[in-house]
Design brief:
There is one protein chain. By secondary structure, the protein is mostly beta strands. The chain is 0% helix and 59% strand. It has no helices and 6 strands.
Length: 70
């Protein structure tokens, strides 16, 4: 479906990861929890088209990447 993004994170622990979606200004526009090893769907249909950054935090570690919403 349009605007749905699948996230699958592996944290190495049973603690869920916190996922943040940030716009190009660095503002957090959405947050949600993702269980390690399971697919989590994020509904990005309410966001404007463009480039975003996702940030995954768990067990003191942070990983980030780019996300394009069309």
């Amino acid at each position: 479906s349009y605007g749905l993004v699948q996230f699958k994170v592996f944290t190495g622990t049973s603690t869920p990861a916190q996922v943040e979606i940030l716009n190009v200004l660095g503002q957090v526009v959405s947050t949600f929890d993702a269980e390690s090893g399971k697919t989590t769907l994020f509904d990005g249909s309410t966001l404007a088209s463009g480039l975003y950054v996702y940030r995954v935090r768990s067990a003191g570690r942070t990983q980030s990447g780019k996300l394009v919403i069309r």
